[in-house]
């Protein structure tokens, strides 16, 4: 089996830098991390210096994702040896127990961390993840709400809660979570766009109009967000087609929908550049837009 | 007597590759069949052959707008290629959970409005292996507003041996890394959700 460095013709420094990039972007490409990380650890450990500890952590988590308990165990032992008594390493040990579905033992591990340090957010969030893994959505939601009362600025937690609510089809509460995120991150086009999607899904004329506004806002923040563009088109079209709107509102929304149509077409033309496969896509989009506008 | 459904290797393969690409997410997608020219009197003997699979989303499946876009766009694409949307598949986020839920029933019902013999397929991830030694699907039919599970065995495939062999080969070769779903397409329009390269790989291995 060829090594990563042989297959891709990369140096160990490039492999180390790739791992760093994946860490910073929070990528969950676990198979790749295991491939690159395992080789780095086995062949180049001495060259990595202090970087090796964070790499052990990253590779361990990826190994858990890939059911590579052998590799996860090795990384964990190295970390235990270097950082005895560390809460961070204890949490990793807990995650390994989770991966082995030993939830009771994992909970004990996290409880022991919380006994020493009741403000340890990582341990609390892992306990909530266990509830999620066990399918106990209502409990997970309750615990996460309690957590957020204390740690009101934890954006990852707000986002997780919005997803939990969406999966339970509680769109109103999901919208509330996204509103919190938008307030603290007014320039984040993704939160805007997700909020608009939730409003659209809730349905009703008022929510549709709100969704259109937020799709438009997302576009303002990032004019390449295709979901926002399609969303603007869909919401404006539905509003224009609604029997409950007056002629002025209808006219305005037809205008928005037409603008969106042109932008969508342009985006597809730019992407297509005349290739055969994309010609189909462009045509399909044109016909789709035509068919909706006519109704 | 309900018409039986059969899956081609390409359809089964891409479904599993989609689930393999995102093991930590729920995934869903559509199945398409060739449009029948006219309804034959003895049509109960011809099974519906799902020839292809269009992977749709991964992660949060319960939001409406992008699903509507995808359904409309793919419907248009189907008309051009003389296909019809004949089914829906879903793999849930939690491995042990392979029951249909509100999303799968809603989308399935929507497809059944246009195609009465529509199938709703749930992927059973607990039996998902690299070797693909057994079919891991549960197939549901729409009957009087309820979804009823029917037997899924090697007869549900056009050629099970071929499907098993090729799906396993593509999983080993990590072809799922290059599988494109509709979410990937929305991230970058150049990503082609018809997956021509994977289709070529399937043909190549036949």
From TrEMBL, chain A:
Cell compartments where the protein resides: Endoplasmic reticulum membrane
Mode of membrane association: Peripheral membrane protein
EMC2 TPR-like domain: residues covered: 90-199
Alphabetized PROSITE patterns for the sequence: TPR (PS50005)
UniProt keywords, alphabetically: Endoplasmic reticulum, Membrane, Repeat, TPR repeat
TPR repeats: 155-188
Physiological role: Part of the endoplasmic reticulum membrane protein complex (EMC) that enables the energy-independent insertion into endoplasmic reticulum membranes of newly synthesized membrane proteins.
Family: Belongs to the EMC2 family.
Name of the protein described by the UniProt record: ER membrane protein complex subunit 2
Source organism per UniProt: Oncorhynchus mykiss
TrEMBL record, chain B:
InterPro entries: EMC8/9, MPN
MPN domain boundaries: 5-146
Coiled coil regions, renumbered to chain: none
A Pfam family hit: UPF0172
Entries under CDD domains matching the protein: MPN_UPF0172
Listed PROSITE patterns: MPN (PS50249)
GO CC annotations, alphabetized: EMC complex
Family: Belongs to the EMC8/EMC9 family.
Quaternary structure (record): Component of the ER membrane protein complex (EMC). EMC8 and EMC9 are mutually exclusive subunits of the EMC complex.
Protein name listed in UniProt: ER membrane protein complex subunit 8
The organism of origin for this protein: Oncorhynchus mykiss (Rainbow trout)
Lineage: Eukaryota, Metazoa, Chordata, Craniata, Vertebrata
């Amino acid at each position: 089996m060829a090594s990563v460095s042989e297959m891709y013709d990369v140096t160990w420094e490039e492999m180390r830098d790739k791992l760093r990039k994946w860490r910073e972007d929070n990528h969950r490409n676990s198979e790749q991390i295991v491939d690159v990380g395992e080789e780095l650890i086995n062949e180049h450990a001495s060259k990595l210096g202090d970087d090796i500890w964070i790499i052990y952590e990253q590779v361990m988590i990826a190994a858990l994702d890939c059911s590579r308990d052998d590799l996860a165990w090795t990384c964990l032992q190295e970390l235990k040896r270097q950082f005895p008594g560390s809460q961070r390493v204890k949490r990793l040990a807990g995650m390994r127990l989770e991966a082995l579905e030993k939830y009771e033992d994992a909970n004990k591990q996290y409880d022991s961390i919380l006994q020493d340090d009741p403000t340890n957010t990582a341990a609390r969030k892992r306990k909530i993840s266990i509830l999620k893994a066990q399918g106990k959505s209502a409990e997970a939601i309750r615990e996460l709400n309690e957590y957020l009362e204390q740690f009101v600025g934890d954006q990852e937690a707000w986002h997780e809660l919005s997803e939990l609510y969406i999966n339970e089809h509680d769109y109103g509460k999901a919208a509330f979570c996204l509103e919190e995120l938008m307030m603290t991150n007014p320039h984040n086009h993704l939160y805007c766009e997700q909020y608009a999607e939730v409003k659209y899904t809730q349905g009703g004329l008022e929510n549709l109009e709100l969704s259109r506004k937020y799709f438009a806002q997302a576009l303002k923040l990032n004019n390449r967000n295709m979901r926002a563009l399609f969303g603007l088109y869909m919401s404006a079209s539905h509003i224009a087609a609604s029997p409950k709107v007056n002629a002025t509102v209808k006219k305005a929304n037809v205008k928005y929908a037409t603008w969106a149509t042109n932008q969508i077409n342009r985006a597809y033309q730019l992407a297509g550049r005349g290739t055969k496969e994309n010609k189909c896509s462009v045509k399909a989009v044109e016909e789709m837009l035509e068919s909706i506008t006519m109704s | 007597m309900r018409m039986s459904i059969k899956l081609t290797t390409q359809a089964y393969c891409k479904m599993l590759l989609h689930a393999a690409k995102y093991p930590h997410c729920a995934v869903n997608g559509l199945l398409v069949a060739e449009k029948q020219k006219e309804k034959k009197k003895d049509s109960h003997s011809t099974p519906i052959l799902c020839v292809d699979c269009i992977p749709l989303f991964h992660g949060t499946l319960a939001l409406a707008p992008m699903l509507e876009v995808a359904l409309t766009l793919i419907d248009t694409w189907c008309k051009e290629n003389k296909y019809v949307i004949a089914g829906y598949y879903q793999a849930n986020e939690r491995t042990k959970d392979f029951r249909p839920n509100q999303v799968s029933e809603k989308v399935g019902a929507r497809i059944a409005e246009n195609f009465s013999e529509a199938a709703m397929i749930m992927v059973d991830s607990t039996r998902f292996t690299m070797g693909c030694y057994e079919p891991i699907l549960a197939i549901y039919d729409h009957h009087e507003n309820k979804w009823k599970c029917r037997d899924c065995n090697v007869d549900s495939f056009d050629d099970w041996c071929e499907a098993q062999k090729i799906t396993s080969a593509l999983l080993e070769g990590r072809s799922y890394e290059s599988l494109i779903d509709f979410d990937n397409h929305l991230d970058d329009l150049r990503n082609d959700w018809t997956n021509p390269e994977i289709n070529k790989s399937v043909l190549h291995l036949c």
